[in-house]
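Appendix B, example 12.
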Amino acid sequence: MTFPELQVNARRLREDVDTLARIGRREDHGIYRMSFSPGDMAGRAWLCQRIADSGLELHQDGAANISARLNWDSKTPCVMAGSHIDTVPGAGHLDGALGVVCALEALRVLQAENVPLHRPLEAVAFTDEEGRFGGMFGSQAMAGLVTPDYLRHAVDLNGISLIDAMAQQGLDAEQALHAQRTPDSIHAYVELHIEQGPVLDRKGVSIGVVDAITGLFKWEITLTGTANHAGTTPMDMRNDAFQGLAEFSGQIDRILEEYGSPRSTATVGRVELIPGAANVIPGQVIFSLDVRDADDATLKLLAEAFSRALSAIARRRGLKFEFAVLSELAPVRCAPQVIQAIEASVEKAGLSSTHLPSGAAHDAQIIAGIAPAGMIFVPSKEGRSHSAAEWTAWADIEAGANTLLNTLRRLASTS
């Protein structure tokens, strides 16, 4: 089927991007729209008003996911697009938010142009993608992964529970148990997102066609030795927990080379030394290990290799080794039919593109458990994200928005 290429209303889209960017912004220029915070609630109110102003159907489910719907028919599987508007503290203005406003703009264009569609469309802003309460709450609820036990134990770093945070905003967290969508209700899901990495920017490419979304495991590791005097304990009589970490850190590159792939990453991002005094040998070190790859078998090999290395170091240095699994996400392959629709839209528009994996987790990773899913990336200047320095050139934003628009039309126009 031949499709005429559509264009977003660039002026209207830019106004939406700029307006949402001012909501939750502080003097340090960072954005603070953590889930269910005042900034987040203000962003939600703005989005609901924009949906209402467009004449699209406004819907909010039990997990507080906000949707705009076009030609809605609950009996016909929809084509869905979206992302999130919540942020990390001090965030940039595009992470998540760009995917939401571009999805809304796509529905407005399709509505205004009266494009004949075989399937209804839905633009979604998912709740708490940034994981204030430990997960991707909104998409997990939609995918049926939220349980009563999950709700009871979901708390943020300050000890505030998800249940209480939602109650303070007049929301009942238990209603999230009714937000589940069945696999036969979603024909396809597409998420437009900034890359949050440097690949597209360095290559000078406008569009990234995501072929896989990375899986990960995150551990909290504890090495316990013996705290002792830094001056009176000979080096060969120490059980120095930090030296265990130092040796382990030196083996990361070797382990990735032997057991990983070119897409594998491993990061020690947080370290706590106990007791943490300049003249005391560290008796304990607690640190995080974040490991990612787009292949599940590779992740398993890496987990085994890192565990063996830690055990060997602990034995050699007279340390006790233990770890707790903080989180695990299985990698996801993007659906061929979604990739093909993206590729067709890119080719028709004459845009430069490349295939690449997503090194970050996204709502698409969760929704892929119930529907064919794919992602469109636009460049991040110097790969910057999760900071006020986050930036994407407007020409690339417009190219991404048009790619999303025409991808949705293709997916919704076929039987």
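The two ends are 11 Å apart (CA to CA). The longest helix spans residues 296-317.
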